[in-house]
């Protein structure tokens, strides 16, 4: 059971480095990758190089970087602010309007940005002060924003999804195109759960409708921000081109298999960047020097994310080479558990690892094994992948919590400890239940 021992060492190093030593997860992923290699024995050097080379040459790594820049560009050009203003004009006049805006905006941004901390910062900076003015207590406001940020994982095309599909374990079982629609449906189930939580928080609070002075008129908001809805429409372009009758027609016309030649993973962030640049063109730099300054300012966002994704892939590849997927699958299957109990066990393992780590790191560490185990138990690969991604979206909902929690608590000026109980009961446990229900087929995806 060398692979299982390797996984134990991998997780121990990552948890130690991020929780006790309190260093960033990028460094932890590098150390985790290096710790796995000795378990490969005499082939450690070859496996290490192969795993690393496969990671740095994977198109998913470059797509992830494109998504990071896309989120930064949309933020800097004010496109995201206009989108939130538009939602506020529609929902801000009802009781608990800011809370509803926070939830709907988080879902909308979750389908575009996918970075939980960025969603919490963007939505929280606008809606937390408004929620406080509408008489929602600070811990509840922070809880709502941190819990909603997890929707960045449960909608296509998050980095966690890419790590899962691009891994050596899950890659042969699942094509990225096959996962898009099921994950969208799974994301909508999670969105419905967030709406229920929002309703409960509003009902239990003394929230009132938002004063008209704090929101734009509907006509003004639509005039200024209706074009931002194009962000959701353009995502469909690469999908339409590479699937169904359109793909067949284009392939016949060009003589090239369009579905294989056009990478959906690469082109979705590209079309979003182009659309965001067009929508926010008035706030784009006007000179080469200004462009260079913009790129320099965006650089810190790439550091930890880039290192994390590369070494998450490399670590997952190295673990796969030690025989971990087969060994873990055999171990869990050997327990001879009913499917619902197996799903709960895998969900608890994924959620426990997600508590101190990012969702991306969680996917690399245990997510791929979870999917392989569920597939071996007879669950369709797409269903298993959706369930595990739902489990991993608890990054901010389990103590000690992830970056989205601390971003939200920082904006609300509240002690994170005051949010732990509600995050567990309102988000972590329900998401565990949703993932299990998806696994056993009660919630279709």
Q: Can you walk through the features of this model?
A:
The chain is mainly alpha-helical and 445 residues long. It has one domain (2-440). 74% of the residues lie in helices and 0% in strands. It contains 23 helices and no strands. The two termini are 34 Å apart. The model has no long low-confidence stretch (mean pLDDT 80).
Write the layout of secondary structure elements.
Layout: H1 2-20, H2 25-36, H3 44-56, H4 59-76, H5 79-91, H6 97-110, H7 116-133, H8 138-148, H9 159-166, H10 176-204, H11 218-225, H12 230-234, H13 236-241, H14 244-254, H15 258-261, H16 264-279, H17 288-321, H18 324-334, H19 339-354, H20 359-376, H21 381-392, H22 403-412, H23 417-440
Helix pairs in contact: 1-2, 1-17, 1-18, 2-17, 3-17, 4-16, 4-17, 5-6, 5-11, 6-7, 6-8, 6-10, 7-8, 7-22, 8-10, 8-22, 8-23, 9-20, 10-21, 10-23, 17-20, 18-20, 19-20, 19-21, 19-23, 20-21, 21-23
């Amino acid at each position: 059971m060398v692979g299982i021992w390797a996984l134990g060492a991998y997780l121990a190093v990552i948890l130690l480095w991020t929780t006790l030593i309190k260093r960033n997860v990028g460094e932890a992923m590098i150390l985790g990758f290096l710790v796995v290699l000795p378990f490969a024995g005499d082939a450690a050097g070859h496996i290490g190089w192969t795993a690393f080379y496969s990671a740095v040459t994977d198109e998913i790594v470059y797509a992830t970087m494109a998504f990071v820049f896309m989120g930064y560009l949309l933020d800097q050009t004010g496109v995201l602010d206009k989108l939130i203003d538009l939602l506020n004009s529609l929902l801000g006049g009802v009781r608990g309007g800011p809370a509803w805006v926070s939830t709907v905006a988080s879902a909308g941004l979750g389908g575009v940005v996918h970075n939980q901390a960025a969603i919490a910062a963007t939505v929280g900076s606008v809606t937390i002060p408004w929620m406080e003015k509408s008489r929602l207590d600070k811990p509840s406001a922070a809880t709502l924003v941190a819990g909603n940020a997890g929707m960045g994982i449960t909608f296509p095309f998050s980095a966690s999804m890419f790590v899962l599909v691009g891994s050596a374990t899950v890659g042969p079982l699942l094509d990225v195109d096959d996962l898009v629609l099921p994950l969208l449906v799974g994301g909508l189930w999670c969105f419905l759960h967030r709406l229920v939580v929002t309703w409960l928080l509003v009902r239990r609070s003394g929230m009132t409708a938002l004063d008209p002075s704090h929101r734009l008129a509907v006509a003004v908001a639509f005039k200024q921000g209706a074009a931002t809805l194009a962000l959701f429409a353009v995502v469909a372009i690469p999908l339409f081109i590479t699937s169904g009758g359109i793909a067949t027609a284009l392939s016949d016309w060009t003589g090239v298999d369009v579905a294989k030649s056009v990478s959906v993973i690469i082109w979705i962030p590209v079309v979003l960047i182009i659309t965001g640049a067009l929508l926010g063109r008035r706030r784009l730099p006007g000179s080469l020097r200004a462009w260079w300054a913009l790129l320099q300012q965006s650089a810190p966002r790439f550091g930890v994310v880039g290192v994390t994704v590369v070494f998450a892939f490399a670590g997952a590849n190295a673990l796969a080479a030690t025989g971990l997927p087969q060994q873990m699958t055999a171990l869990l299957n050997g327990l001879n558990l009913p499917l619902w109990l197996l799903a709960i066990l895998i969900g608890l393992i994924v959620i426990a690892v997600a508590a101190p780590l990012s969702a991306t790191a969680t996917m690399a560490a245990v997510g791929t094994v979870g999917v392989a185990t569920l597939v071996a138990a007879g669950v369709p690969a797409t269903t298993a992948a959706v369930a595990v991604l739902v489990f991993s979206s608890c990054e901010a909902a389990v103590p000690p919590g992830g970056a989205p929690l601390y971003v939200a608590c920082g904006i609300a000026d509240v002690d994170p400890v005051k949010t732990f109980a509600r995050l567990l009961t309102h988000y972590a446990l329900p998401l565990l239940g949703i993932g299990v229900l998806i696994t056993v087929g009660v919630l279709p995806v």
